[in-house]
Structure formats: C-alpha cells, structure tokens
Specification:
Layout: H1 3-7, E1 14-24, E2 34-40, E3 60-63, H2 64-73, E4 78-82, H3 92-101, E5 105-110, E6 124-129, E7 153-158, H4 161-171, E8 181-186, H5 193-203, E9 208-209, H6 213-218
Parallel strand pairs: 2-4, 4-5, 5-6, 6-7, 7-8, 8-9
Antiparallel strand pairs: 1-2, 1-3
C-alpha cells in the first residue's frame, strides 16, 4: 500500500508497525514453533539491556485487516504480537481480538508495565517482570498479577545474582493462578546461562529455564 493510502487508514483501524516476519518462536511456551511476529513500534520503557531499540521510532501504518491477512498468509497458526511495547498503542487489543477471531493461536509479549488485564482471554500473555538490572523495575504494574490465566507466563530476565535473588523473593509467597509458567532467562552477554541453571537447581526453584532460541540460531539479527 502506498504511503498516502496508509495515512488514510481510519484512526481506529491502524497501528504503527516496525516489521512483520516469519521465524521460529525463540521464547516462552511456544518456543520452536514457526511463528508470525508482528512488531509494533514504540515503547515507554528504556530497559538497559533492550535488544529491540530499533522499534522505538519510525514504522509504517498498517490496517488491522492487513495485519490479519498477512499473518494468515504464512500458513502457521502461531502469531506473536510484540514490540517495543505493543499495549502502548490503543488499537493493539483490537488487533489481538481480530487475530483470535481469525482462528490463530495468539501470544502477546508485554513489558508488564501497562495494564494487560482486559486483553482478550484467548491470548497467551507473556508478562516481562522487570528486574532491578533492567533499570525499570519501578514500572512493574503489579495488578496484572491478579488477573493471570493458566496459559499466561511470567518472564524474568536475570542479569546477575542480585537479579536472581530479587526474582526469587518476588515470587516467594506470591500465589499465581494454576498453570501459569514462570520463566527465568539469562540476559544475553551478561550472565552465563550455566550459572543461572546452577542457581535454579541449587534452590530447587519451580521455574522454567530458557535461552532465547533465535539468538542461538541467528545471533539476535532483527527480523529473525
């Protein structure tokens, strides 16, 4: 679609998009599945270790209908709406619902700093609980934790032992909905994966260790 036509998309039907691409899901419960990624532009946070700073600005307007059609064109049922911070755009929730209505298996990767409680119940929400090492732990919207569903997941990016201890204390005594998975991931280039694995095993934490598969395969190249 030409730029002028994109500018003419009605305000309630458009989103600013950095990229749409087909790859393997690198994280969370659908790891390894061929997945369509819809990366929305913009984020109000500035995590110290952010690996998608290119999504902070720019992008092009897409209609929700275009995005649904593009997602379906790849022939996989898995779609991940990510960012930036996708919920920073008001129409993101409408996109999520329309993708679900199209029969797709939809996940949302969100910082956890924005209210995600009203996201369509069919969507698997992956909430990134910000640790002190991110520089944004004060932004955690803790009310999200009261509305978790069994197919939701909490992700902690661990930069060092202090982050690990903080995350362990954060979870202690906190009752999560049955079935909610807790994911501990080492911050790439900052914490040796084996070290984090050893801490989890030593403390017998009921969490799922994860590496970012896309970085193992492609080194975190944008659009992969």
């Amino acid at each position: 679609m030409a730029a002028s036509a994109r500018d003419a998309i009605p305000a309630g039907e458009r989103l600013r998009i950095t990229e749409v691409f087909h790859s393997l899901q690198g994280e969370a419960d659908a790891v390894g599945w061929p997945t369509v990624f819809i990366r929305l532009t913009g984020c109000p946070l500035r995590c110290r270790y952010c690996d998608t700073e290119y999504a902070f600005y720019g992008g092009d307007w897409w209609s929700i209908g275009e995005l649904v059609a593009r997602a379906r064109s790849f022939g996989t049922p898995y779609v991940c709406v990510t960012g930036g911070e996708p919920l920073a755009q008001p129409n993101a929730q409408r996109l999520l619902t329309r993708l679900c209505d199209a029969g797709l298996k939809v996940s949302l990767e969100t910082s956890g700093a924005i209210d995600a409680r009203t996201v369509d119940a069919r969507v698997a929400r992956v909430l990134d609980v910000k640790t002190p090492g991110s520089g944004e732990s004060a932004r955690n919207f803790l009310e999200n934790l009261t509305a978790l569903r069994p197919h939701d997941q909490l992700k902690f990016v661990i930069t060092d032992r202090a982050d690990y201890d903080w995350s362990r204390a954060f979870l202690a005594g906190r009752e999560l909905a049955p079935g909610v998975q807790v994911l501990f991931s080492p911050s790439a280039g900052e914490l040796e994966p084996a070290r984090l694995a050893e801490w989890i095993l030593a403390d017998r934490l009921p969490v799922r260790f994860q590496l970012q598969l896309h970085k193992v395969l492609w080194g975190g190249e944008p659009g992969r």
